[in-house]
């Protein structure tokens, strides 16, 4: 299946949008909690202090998580774009990864059931490793 020259970049934009949404949620939750609990900004200047003072860390935990495995996702898509290795399968895997990250984030930022979140995380990780495998095979075939 033909994939347009920039189609592989749209899942990256979607994941960046998710990161922005989680960042906004973090801002709203943090500012609200600081006002409600009268937390002075300087008293949470370091992450250890913040961990002790803030009650709701779901959004901040999820935001931090969006800079772990997704870094490999962005790298794979950049490589696919730069080498013209994008395919329908690669694009489908990219969108599946984004969907699983949305699910993971929704669980993490809402009811936060660890096993549900873990299953979404593991599924996303497997999709990401598969995406890298498909990309590697594609690059080997191009060589």
Features:
6 helices; 143 residues; single chain; mainly alpha; elongated; Four Helix Bundle (Hemerythrin (Met), subunit A)
Q: What's the domain count?
A: 1
Note the run of SSEs as H and E: HHHHHH
CATH class, named Mainly Alpha
Average pLDDT metric: 94
**SS element count, helices:** 6
**For the terminal residues, how far apart are their CA atoms?**
20 Å
- Binned, the helix content reads over 70%
CATH level-two architecture: Up-down Bundle
Beta-strand content bin: under 5%
CATH topology: Four Helix Bundle (Hemerythrin (Met), subunit A)
- Classify the secondary structure makeup into a structural class: mainly alpha
Q: How would the global form be characterised?
A: elongated
Low-confidence stretches are none
Describe the largest sheet. none
Rg over CA atoms, rounded to whole Å, is: 18 Å
DSSP E strands, number: 0
Structure description:
By secondary structure, the protein is an all-alpha fold. It is elongated and about 60 Å long. The longest helix is centred in the last third of the chain and has 29 residues. The protein has a single domain, classed as Four Helix Bundle (Hemerythrin (Met), subunit A). 27% of the residues are buried.
How are the secondary structure elements laid out?
Layout: H1 10-37, H2 47-53, H3 58-65, H4 69-82, H5 88-109, H6 114-142
Helix pairs in contact: 1-3, 1-5, 4-6, 5-6
In short:
The chain has 143 residues and is mainly alpha-helical. It has 6 helices and no strands.
